[in-house]
Specification:
The protein is mostly helical. The chain has two helices and no strands. The longest helix has 40 residues.
């Protein structure tokens, strides 16, 4: 196992190499996630209503 102090130094060096996103990029990413969540929730709402409709038809026919 490596020396813990050397390990921490290497981690620090690697952390400086990380390219952190700008605030604009972060906002764009957050908006994209929000938009996709809205789109997917509407899709599943529509799918749920369609399946409910067909299930009610099926249950009425079988009675």
């Amino acid at each position: 196992m490596k020396n813990p102090i050397k390990f921490i130094q290497e981690v620090k060096q690697e952390a400086f190499k990380v390219s952190w996103p700008t605030s604009k990029e972060t906002m764009q990413g957050a908006l994209m996630v929000f938009a996709m969540a809205v789109v997917m929730s509407l899709f599943f709402l529509l799918l749920d209503q369609v399946l409910k409709f067909f299930l009610e038809i099926l249950l009425k026919v079988s009675i």
